[in-house]
Structure formats: structure tokens, C-alpha cells
Amino acid sequence: MVSAARVFALVALLGLVPVGARAGGGAALERGRAAIRAGDAIGAVRAFAAALAEAPSPATHFLLAQAYHGAFLKTGLYYRETVEAYEAVVETLGDGVPPGSPRHLARLFLGQVLLRGGEGSRAAEQVRAFLAAHPGHYAREEAWNSLGVALYDENDYEGAVKAFEQALRGDPTHGPARFNLRSVFTRLSLFDQAMANRRAGRLDLTLTDLDQLLRLAPRFGPAHLQRGLVLTELGRVAEAEAQAGSGLDLVKDPRVRFALHDLRGDLRSRRGDEEGALEDYRRCLRIFPGYVQVADKIDGIEKRAAEAAAPPDPGEGEAAPSAGVQTPVSQFPL
Amino acid sequence: MRLALAVILSLAAAGVWAAPEAPVGAHRGLECAACHPGGGREHRPCRECHDSSANLHPVGDAPRFPVPEAFPLVGGLLACETCHRLHPPTGIHALRGLERPGVEELRRFCFACHGSALAAQDPHRAQAGSNRCSYCHSSVDVAAVLAGGAPRTREVTRELCEVCHDMASRDHPRNVDPVLELPEGLPRGPEGAVTCVTCHDPHGSSEYTHYIREEYARHFERNVEANPHRDERSACRACHVRRTPEELTREDHELRFQGDAMLLCISCHARARSHHPVGMPLPEAMGARLAERGGLPLDRNGRLVCTSCHTNSCASGQQRMALRHYDPRRMDLSLCWKCHPKEEFAQIDPHRKVVDDSTDGCVFCHDRAPVKGLEKAEDLYFVSQVKMICLRCHENLSDSDVSHMGKTPSPEVVERLQRFAAERGTEFPLDREGRFTCTTCHNAHFSAKDDRHKTRLPTREMCGLCHRR
């Protein structure tokens, strides 16, 4: 974890204050440095804020963000100020910033602060951006681990596993990633158990497992989907439709959303709500436009609607078989 | 008679006939006079016994939200008895109405006045602003905090946490080892008790899931260094509550993690998602088959666990991990046929179903058929470890096949495989541990007509990737 002391140490060790001092506001920066040495987070915030007002520069912005970060970690206050200060630094990151500049860490720090603020989705975005820009950075294991924690908080367990494993690939002894990976697997073991029960045909036990999992992880998409499928299999179609709906309210993963829309479309179609089914199928195609089977379902509904609207043709024989083409399995991306 | 009954009912309705039942919970056994010195309904102020710092909710204020009739105000103001009732019917923490349907959780009790929007006000989230502090801290003097002082924390940690975290229903702490001695520096509750905040930092963490404290996690990690799979005296303590071989007997060898073998195994094997379903009782037919054939122990709850198939060979006196009823030289699957019907597997050819343009065969290996175009192989969940899936039908391998499996390729070979995969637009996947597995060389999705061995490249070329002449 980035403790207040470590943030202060980074400022001091990397010699950021002299960098800022050259940009102006020397006396205030000197006061800030003295405050950091004394562990006075608030004094550092005041001093760097004064320096920034006197002579704005990206380096001083970063110093102020670091001071706020230290104050936030020490007191639990100054969250919004820390986020805004780092955001200001991130805006200045571009081609002009030397590759070795510690300012690049602003994205990672911003992600970690957002994570503590409960903004997991934004945190993941920032950490991903940091990793994309600096795949070989010396702090990459810490970044991968933070990304995993953010994804775990968002109940994206598969993403979290990949992130923690990436951290361990860089450093097999990375304690936090090992510990966190264990957390994910402990939780996923419930899902595995549910799936094993489903394969064994014990659907009531499957529902119990999935209910427990959803209490722990209400946004875990695969559990919503499986619960909907199991309820459908049990013939509890109204509950299955409600389950698909509540899953769609919470889940962001497009693959799961696709499957939930497809399931709800089928259930709506089954109870005669063709309009509702069409809406779901169209949403599927918005996620994945090339999915032929869903397009076929839409064609079928529209064809039935057209037939119902058209006057009966006394000479009409048996309907020709559908010309719908199934995607060959050989074209699966496997 | 009717008149007498009417009088009784009227008195009861007026609350003057029947004395309430004796207090329950923490107030059980108190004499009436302890709270009602005058003998009537009037009672002594609760604060005479309860420190106000224990109170989670302000009292003496006018309510800011409409308060349902079931929660009485005192002179129009919030009071202790607005939420609490010591005499039955009452719920945990002497809260009114917790027994009602839909109010099983504490936070739902709070929703009665605050509405469900309360759920969004998470005191752990820094973005909720400084107001959140007062949920856990009885005195929040911002100036004092900024000057380096620590705010006073309420003493009722568990109750504070329970309002949102329904630990009882979550089976917490499921994956905690009570045998583990905690480090000295972790915060304790009154009289040194372990509380929620001993292991969790309520202020959040960007490094650990579940807000786990760094000190706790590091301590936990240090403890997993003991290797139970080697023949030495100190190995026993890694798995057993009692630490030395002399203290352990065949009848009495209690495992750590409350005897849960799965949690015990996962505590070290963090990087391996189970390659076989565990944690549930066997399906009826499998259970009957195992009962007949025997040889694989289930846990005390009749569940299949890691140690059903794996054994540390402790009884031999020379600890080493092994699979029961399994010959690694032949990859013979006698172990699997203790539960699974060999003849049923033999009737299914998942490769053929793939060729026939149906998705039915997918679930032989994968948990579900893929969403075409959206999902890649790595996104799909296999029903088991790849090697185990293949061995279901392809057991008793040849010596050369066996010699390949489970070996870790050299960095040069890995580099060559990656380069060739990029050139040929294919892949040669290794297993999770970076070792050769069946699908490194074979592709289950190939048509059986293409190549008898379903190798990813023509056989000679495939072998030549690693075996240079």
C-alpha cells in the first residue's frame, strides 16, 4: 500500500522539490520540503499550494498532489482534493514528459486513491492507462495488483484473476497478489461448486450456491446468467425473466449482457411478448452485430407479425424452410 | 362473562393489564426496579448505564425523515426507545421489529426511516465526504485530526459492522484460520478481543481485497511457507492444529481451517483454480458407485474435497503428495472410474460433434457453448483441467506421450513456439503453470478427418518445433 510515509519519501528521494524550485516559488517549495521531512502533511499541502499559486508548473502540481495524497492517507480527509490534483497532473502528461519522469506515476496514484474512494471502475481505467503507457515500469507489479483489486471490487473476478496472475508473472513472490488471488479463488470456488451441481442435475443445490454467491458478489455476471438459466430449466420462467432483468441492471460485461438479453428475449417470446423480445434481441445485435442466430430470431418474429397482418392466402401451401444460415462452428474463434 | 372479557381486553389494549414479558438479550435477568424505580412505565435514562459513545444513532434530535408509527418518539424527538425495546417481542440488539418479514437484516431495519438510499452511503468510501467519519468515530474534531490527533472510535465495532455486513449469513470468517496467531501490532477490541478491524482496515486498501490489513496479510503469507509435503518433523504443523507427530494419531488429527480440507489446500495453492469440482456431495449415482468401489474418502459432511483424490501419505510416515489409485507412469485413470462411468464417456465423441456444426459437444469440455465472435478460448471456462478432460477418454498413454506431459519448456522453446504461432496464425498453449499439456500440440476442434492425431501442425512439423535435428 502507498502509505503517507512512502508518498513523502518518494517526493524527497526523487528530488522533486528542487525540480519544482527551478520553476519558481522557491521559498514555498522549501517550506513544503521541510514540512514533508517533519511529517506535517497539512503544512506541505499549504506550502505547495502557495508555490503553485506563485508559479504554476506541472512539477509543482505533482508535488501538491503528492502532499494531498499524504494528507489523505494520514487523515482520511482531502479525498476530492487529492483526486483533482492528480487529475490536473494527468492532463499534463504527454509527449513532452521525459520517460523517466516520476509524474507518470500520477495515473497509478490516482487509480489507487480512486480505489480507496470506492470508485473501482474509474480506478481500473486509470491503472490500465498507466500499464498501457508503461508496460515495463518498475512499479508494474503493484499496478497489476491494484488493477486486480479494482476489478475484484467490481465483481469482475475473471479480470481480477488475470491481473493478479500478471503481477505474479513479474514477481512470483509478490505477497499481495498471492493473497488476493486466494481471495478470488475462494469466492470462485462457490461458482465452481454451483456449476458442478448444475452439471450433476442438482438444480436446487445450484440455486442455493448461486444465491449465496450473489449475496457476496451482487454484480458477478456469470452468477446472474446461470441463475436465470437454471430457473428457466426448472420452468420458473417468470423468476428467470426477473433474474435476467436484475442481472442487466447490475452487470457491465458485454458478453454476459449479450447472453442475458438473449435469455430474456427467449423468455419474453415464449410468453407472447414479441415486442419485448424484439427489444432484447436488438440489444444483443447492438453488442455483437454479427450474431446470426439472434438475427434469425428477429426475422422469425417479424415474419410471424407480417403473416398475422396479411390477409389469408387460400392457395398458400406449406411454408418453405428458413434460409437462415448458421455460423459454422469452424468459424468460432477458438 | 362477556362484560368481564371486554374489560380485560380493553385494559390489555390500554397497556395497563398485562405486565410485559421479562427483558431478553443483554438485559435478561434484570429486576423491574433496575430500570423502573417508581414501579410504573417511566424508566431511568439509558445513559445512566450506557456510555453515549456506544450509541450509533443521534438521540434528542427531531427526526429528519418520516418515522413510522411503530417507532415511538419522545416529545417529538428521537430517543433510545424509538428504536429499542427491551421486552419481547424484540430483535438482536433489542431492536424493534427485526422479526418482521423483510427486515431480517439490520440495514433493512434502518431503511424503515432512512429508505434504501442509505445503502449507497458507504462509510468506507472516501468519496462520501467527511460526514462518513461519524459513523465509526464518536468524536470527529477535524482540526484535531489535522493536527495529528486520532478521533475517538466507538467501542461497539462488531455492531457497527453488522449493520451492513450480515456476517452470520455470510458464514464469516469462512476462510480464516483461527489457529493462526495474530501479530502483536494489530488493533484489538476491549480486553484484547479480536474484532473486525483487527484484520480489516475500514479506511480501505488499494493493495488488498476485503480491506485486509497489510500486517495481517504479510503474517498470513509468512505462515504458508511451511511445506507439509516433505518428510520432516516441522511439516505437520502446516496442516494440523496439533503441531508435532507425537500429538497426532490416526483417530485424532484435526486439521486447521476448522477442518475444511479445501480451505487448507487453497491457503497455499493460491494459483490453481480447482481442476475438478469440489466442495459438494457426490451426485446420487456417483455416490452409489463410489460406495460400491470404495477407496476415496469424502469429508465429514460427505463432500468431495481435494483430499478425496490427493493424499499426503501421512500414514506411511513419509509425507509426499500422491494421487490415490493412480499410476503416473501410464496416466491410468482407475482413480476417476471410482465415481465416473467409463462406459458413458466412451460413447461420446466431442470432436465429432464439433465437426457436425453443433454446439452440443462444447459442453463436454467447456462450461457452456461460446458466444460466437465475442469469446475466445481463453475466456471460456473448462469443466476441469485440460489434461484431465482429455484423459477421460485418452487414458493409458504411450511412453512418449507421458514423457511430454507436465514438462516445462526451456525459454528458448517458449520463444520458438511463440514466434512460430505468430507466423502461422495459430497458438501452442501451455497450461496455467507454463507446462506442456495435451492442447499444446493437439487441437480438439480439428476435424477428425484432417489428421488422426489432431495436431496443430502436420505431425512432423509439429515435432520439429521443439526437436531440432
Fold blueprint:
The complex is a heterodimer of chains A (334) and B (469).
Chain A: H1 4-13, H2 16-23, H3 26-37, H4 41-54, H5 58-75, H6 79-92, H7 105-116, H8 120-133, H9 140-153, H10 157-170, H11 175-199, H12 203-216, H13 221-233, H14 237-250, H15 254-270, H16 274-287, H17 292-309
Helix pairs in contact in A: 1-5, 2-3, 2-5, 3-4, 4-5, 5-6, 6-7, 7-8, 7-9, 8-9, 9-10, 9-11, 10-11, 11-12, 12-13, 13-14, 13-15, 14-15, 15-16, 16-17
Chain B: H1 2-14, H2 32-35, H3 80-83, H4 106-114, E1 137-139, H5 142-146, E2 152-153, H6 157-162, H7 167-170, H8 196-199, H9 214-223, H10 261-266, H11 284-293, H12 306-309, E3 310-311, E4 322-323, H13 342-346, H14 350-355, H15 362-365, H16 386-391, H17 399-404, H18 411-424, H19 438-441, H20 459-464
Antiparallel strand pairs in B: 1-2, 3-4
Question: How would you portray this structure in words?
Answer:
The complex is a heterodimer of chains A (334) and B (469). Chain A is mainly α and 334 residues long. Chain A is 73% helix and 0% strand. Chain A has helices at residues 4-13, 16-23, 26-37, 41-54, 58-75, 79-92, 105-116, 120-133, 140-153, 157-170, 175-199, 203-216, 221-233, 237-250, 254-270, 274-287, 292-309. The longest helix of chain A is centred in the middle third of the chain and has 25 residues, at 175-199. With 469 residues, chain B is mainly alpha-helical. Helix content of chain B is 28%, strand content 2%. Chain B has helices spanning 2-14, 32-35, 80-83, 106-114, 142-146, 157-162, 167-170, 196-199, 214-223, 261-266, 284-293, 306-309, 342-346, 350-355, 362-365, 386-391, 399-404, 411-424, 438-441, 459-464; strands spanning 137-139, 152-153, 310-311, 322-323. Chain B is elongated, with a radius of gyration of 32 Å. The model of chain B has no long low-confidence stretch (mean pLDDT 79). At the A-B interface, helix 7, helix 9, helix 10, helix 11 and helix 12 of A face helix 5, helix 9 and helix 10 of B.
